[in-house]
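ok here's Phage-associated protein:
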Amino acid sequence: LTMSKRIMLRNVRLSYAHVWEPKSVNGGEPKYSASLIIPKADTAMIQMVEKAIDEVLKSEGPGKFGGKVPPRGSLKLPLRDGDTDRDDAAYADAMFLNA
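and the structure:
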């Protein structure tokens, strides 16, 4: 499922930022990208991202998953927990998403 909703995140930290020139990964097409790190203490921003994910699941999920909205636990969602999904101190006590 591709996120097709635009939201504006403020005051996040960037990691693996390729924002000035696109970078090719494993010989693929060069793309601009970054990992956006959101402190877990910023619950308002995390809720905004969660709401956007839910809206995309409800609007696009049925067309891609046989008429049903898939359960969140069955998908690899864009917002992930830095404490469990990254072995990197920069992601500690934070959520992150890649864009």
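+1. The longest strand covers residues 13-23.
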